[in-house]
Amino acid sequence: RLLIAMLSDNGLESFIDKFGLPSKEEWSGASELKAFYRQIAKIREQGFAMQITVNHILGIALPLYRDGKVIASLSMYMPESRFSTSDTERIVRLIKRSAERISKNL
Q1: What is the pLDDT of residues 82-104, one digit of tens each?
Q2: DSSP strand E in the chain: where?
Q3: I want to staple 70 with a disulfide (CB 3.0 to 4.6 A). Which of 13, 27, 49, 63 is the partner?
Q4: What's the rounded Cα separation, in Å, for the pair 101 and 68?
């Protein structure tokens, strides 16, 4: 999700043309065009993506940059049962710190 969201607007259009919109199973709340773009805007605004899979695995991803361009993501996954929304800010801050260090060395 993060890597898709970090595509340019033209890149997003090309992605949709080539692969279509994600199914409800793949990305709940993004299977219709307007909803997809709302999800993209939210990820771009937050600077990270968060998802919970149908198997109750929570994932948080932040971008890795090279020469100002997103080339990959750094992600963390855990059972949803071990996650509290009050932890989001702290977890994102820690992953972001690691992502920045990695990006400096790419």
Answers
A1: 999 899 999 999 999 999 999 99
A2: 49-52, 57-66, 69-79
A3: 63
A4: 14
